Amino acid sequence: MTAKKKQILLNAFNMNCVGHINHGLWAHPRDQSHRYKTLDYWTSLAATLERGLFDGIFLADILGVYDVYQGSVDLTLRESIQLPVNDPLLLVSAMAAVTQHLGFGVTVNASADAPYIFARRISTLDHLTSGRIGWNIVTGYLDSAARGLGLESQIEHDGRYDRADDYLDLLYKLWEGSWEDDAVLIDREKRIYADPSKVHAIDHRGPFYRSRAYHLAEPSLQRTPVLYQAGTSGRGKQFAARHAECIFIAAPDKSAARAASRSLREAVVAAGRKPEDIKIFLGITVITDRSATAAREKHAEYLRYANPEAGLAHFSASTGIDFSRYDLDETITYGKSNASQSATQIAQQRGWTKRQLLQELAMGGRYPVIVGDAAAVADELSSWMDEGEIDGFNLTRTVVPESFEDFIDIVVPVLQERGLYKTGYEQGSLRRKLFGEGDRLPDHHIGSSFRR
Fold first, then answer.
1. Binding site listing
2. Model-level pTM?
3. Partners of 151 in beta bridges
4. What are residue 6's phi and psi, to 5 degrees?
5. Would you tell me which CATH number, out of the four given (3.20.20.30, 3.20.20.450, 1.10.10.10, 3.40.1190.20), belongs to the domain 9-179+213-450?
6. pLDDT tens-digit map of 345-388
7. Contact by Cβ (8 Å): 370, 343
8. What residues form the annotated binding site for FMN?
9. What mean pLDDT comes out for the span 54-66?
10. How far apart are CA 203 and CA 170, in angstroms?
11. Three-state secondary-structure class, residue 73
C-alpha cells in the first residue's frame, strides 16, 4: 500500500511595510507594496490567499530601525528596508472579516508589551477571528529598538529568552487558568453572565514579571494562540522546544534545512514532547510563469530592480556586523553577537565574504529562490519537503500582488494534482487545521499545566 503523501503547509510571508525580504522590488512598475497603508491592499490580499487555500499569512515586525550598515539609516530610508513600518495586529480584524479560514501569525515582541495587556489583545483577536490567531514570539535583537523603549542597549541574548520564558508562564496563567471552561453561562433568567466561582485571579511572581489579576477576556476558542517562533540558536532552540508549535527556519540548501529540522525535533523530544508536535516552515522565494522560459525572463526582469546592497544592510542589522567596512573579498569576522545569532550561523560556517553575500542576496533577500514553470517549482518544493524534512514554507513576496497570484494560479493546481496540497479547508481553529486535533494546546504542552 502506497503511503499518503505529506501535504505542504503554506504561509504568505509579509510585513506591514513596503520592503520586507526581497529588497528593491518596490521600484518595479507593477509592484503595489506602497499601498500597504490602505485596508483594501490587505483585504484584497487576504481574499486572494484564501482563494489559494493558504494556511495563513505570517506577519513579521520590528520595533527599531536598521542603522548598523554605514552607521546610519540613509540606505534604509532610500530603499524602504522595513521602514516605515506599521503595526501588524491592526490588520487582522479587517482581513478576518473577508475570509473564513485563513490563519494569522502575528509578530509581537515579548520584551516590549506588558503581558497582562497583550493577553487581552490576543484573546480579542482569537474571538474576532473564530480561533484563527497565532503569535510569532520574538524577543528583539535591535539596539535601535531598545533605545526606543528607553534602554541603553538590547538585553543580552540569552537573557532575553529567560525573560520570555517568564512572560509565557504568566500568559499561560491568564489564558489557560483564569477562567474555567464553563464559567460563562449567559443565563438571562438568573441574571448570571459568568459564574464568579469559576473565574480566578492569577498570582504570578516570576523572576522578571509579577501580576495579580483576572484575565479580562472570557475564554476564546483556542485560549492560547498557535505559538510561532523563529530562531535556531542554542538558547532559542531550548525556548522553541518548550513552547513553539510552528518554527520558522532559514536555510540556504536542503542539507542545512535537514540538519536544523532534526536538531529542533530532537530538542522537542528532549523537552518531553513528540517530534510531530511542531511544524517547521522554511523561508523561500518562488518566481514562476506558464513556461520555463517565461519564468527565467521574469526572474531576469526582477533582478534588474532588486538591490543586493539593501539586502546586505538588512543582514547587517540581523548580525550586528557593519559589512560596509569590509572589502569585497576580505575575511569577515563572524563572532558571537547580541543580535540574532541564528542569522550568522550559516554565513559563519561557510566563511562568506562580502562578495559572496552580495551574490546570495541577488534578489535582495537571503532565502532560496526557485525559478521555473509549475512542474519545476512543484518538483523543487517536494524535494525541499523530503530532503529538508520540513512541513511547509513561508512564501516571501517579490512583486506584489502578482507573486502570490502567480503561485496560486500556476503552481497550486499542479501541487493539488500531485496530492501535495489540499483541495479544501478543514473546519475549525487554526490549531485544528494545522495539527488535525483539538482547538486547544495538547495536554503534554507546558501551557496545559496551568489549567484548572
1. 61, 107, 157, 161, 233
2. 0.96
3. none
4. -75, 125
5. 3.20.20.30
6. 777 777 889 999 999 999 999 899 999 999 999 999 999 999 99
7. no
8. 61, 107, 157, 161, 233
9. 97
10. 9
11. coil
